[in-house]
Every structure is written in C-alpha cells, then in structure tokens.
Design a protein that fits this description.
The complex is a heterodimer.
Chain A lengths: L4 E3 L2 E4 L5 E6 L6 E7 L6 E7 L2 E5 L6 E5 L5 E5 L8 E8 L7 E2 L3 E5 L1
Parallel strand pairs in A: 2-11
Antiparallel strand pairs in A: 1-3, 3-8, 4-5, 4-9, 5-6, 7-8, 9-10, 9-11
Chain B lengths: L3 E4 L2 E5 L4 E7 L6 E7 L5 E8 L4 E4 L2 E6 L4 E6 L8 E8 L12 E6 L1
Parallel strand pairs in B: 2-10
Antiparallel strand pairs in B: 1-3, 3-8, 4-5, 4-9, 6-7, 7-8, 9-10
The chains are: A mainly beta, B mainly beta.
Chain lengths: ~110, ~110
C-alpha cells in the first residue's frame, strides 16, 4: 500500500540558509500535518492543511511557512535556519472520514 | 491545553513477558486516541486508534484500552519479543483530523 512520501530524507544546511521539505500524502488523503521532533523529544505539531487551506497552526516559527498544493502535496519552507532547527520533520496525512494519521519516514535536518 | 504523560519512561523486560504501558491525559474531552511505535531515528507507525466511544481495540498481540472519563489509556503487549523493542507513544486527538498531542513515550527493550 502507498505510504506518505517525504523528500529529502536527509538535509544538511548552514545557519541562515533556507530549506524546503516536501510531503506527498497517501492518495485520496485530504489533510496534511507537519510535526517537528527534536533530539530526545516528542513530536510537536507545526501546521496542518485540509483541502489546500490551513486548518490548524501550532508552534511554527514565523521563519517557517507552508502550503498545500492542488495535487495535495505540501511543502514546508524554512528560512534563516538556526542550530535549534535541527530535528526530524514528519509529515502525516489523513482522510477526513477515517481520522487515523499516517506518518511519513521523516526528513532529518541538520543545521551547522 | 492537553498534556500527556506516559509511564514508565523506560522499561526493560525478558522475552515472553506480558507488559502494560500507561498513558494519561489531562483533557478527557477527546475524540480518539492513537498509539504509535517509533524505532530509533525512524518514523512513527500507527498501531491502534481507539474512538472515544470505544473501550478497547485489539491488533494481534496488542490490546489498547481507553477510559476517557479518567483520562487514561493502556497498551497491553502479550508475549513480548525482541522485535517489540522501540519507543511507544500515545496521542489523544481533540476531534477528527486535528493535530495530535504526544506523550514523551515509553522506551521498551525486550531482552532475548
């Protein structure tokens, strides 16, 4: 069965650079969520989209932005990267009528 | 704001033991609760989802129960195996398709 796809899987950036993470939800899923998991931490919700509109917003820094496109894939744009942004970034998708969130493998971002 | 606590934080057991992982949450007005498994540096795998109207869900050797009024859920693992070694996270959802709030997880080690 198709799963959530995230790219890239690993990313190394310098401080103050920008990064773009991509998420391709499971086919027919209409909701995408972004979570950040720091080292040794539990995942923290950043932002979500339903039918291409932002639906919930969590602890997402102003330096980050995200959107969901017409094909339902989503991109998380991160600017002015800081050392503390180093983390695993998960994307999850769900279908409104089924509720279970399915997580992608994550993108590991390292900011040097 | 929902707060989730998981006890114990870490657990080491010999192979074959039955074990119980505990999850408590402060806001009992939840819509559902998911249990996830996470292997080191990997993504989150959904194990079970319990609707607020349900008392328990079973999948193979896993059984999750939910006592919504007392704000508690337990994950029971029967006949544990070394392959069960991972971190187990619980995450209540406030309503369908809303962001999940995670506990810090229980790190399980099953010794052969």
């Amino acid at each position: 069965a198709a799963g959530v796809i995230q790219s890239p899987r690993h990313l190394i950036k310098e401080k103050r650079e920008t990064a773009t993470l991509k998420c391709y939800p499971i086919p027919r899923h209409d909701t995408v969520y972004w979570y950040q998991q720091g080292p040794g931490q539990d995942p923290q919700f950043l932002i979500s989209f339903y039918e291409k509109m932002q639906s919930d917003k969590g602890s997402i820094p102003d330096r980050f932005s995200a959107q969901q496109f017409s094909d339902y894939h989503s991109e998380l744009n991160m600017s002015s990267l800081e050392l503390g942004d180093s983390a695993l970034y998960f994307c999850a998708s769900s279908f409104k009528l089924e509720e279970t969130q399915y997580f992608g493998p994550g993108t590991r971002l390292l900011v040097l | 704001k929902q707060e989730v606590t998981q006890i114990p934080a870490a657990l080491s057991v010999p192979e074959g033991e039955n074990l119980v992982l505990n999850c408590s949450f402060t806001d009992s007005a939840i819509y559902n609760l998911q249990w996830f498994r996470q292997d080191p540096g990997k993504g989150l795998t959904s194990l079970l989802l319990i609707q607020s109207s349900q008392r328990e869900q079973t999948s193979g050797r896993l059984n999750a129960s939910l006592d919504k009024s007392s704000g508690r859920s337990t994950l029971y693992i029967a006949a544990s195996q070394p392959g069960d070694s991972a971190t187990y996270l619980c995450a209540p959802g406030d309503s369908g398709n809303t962001p999940l709030v995670f506990g810090k997880g229980t790190r399980l080690s099953v010794i052969a």
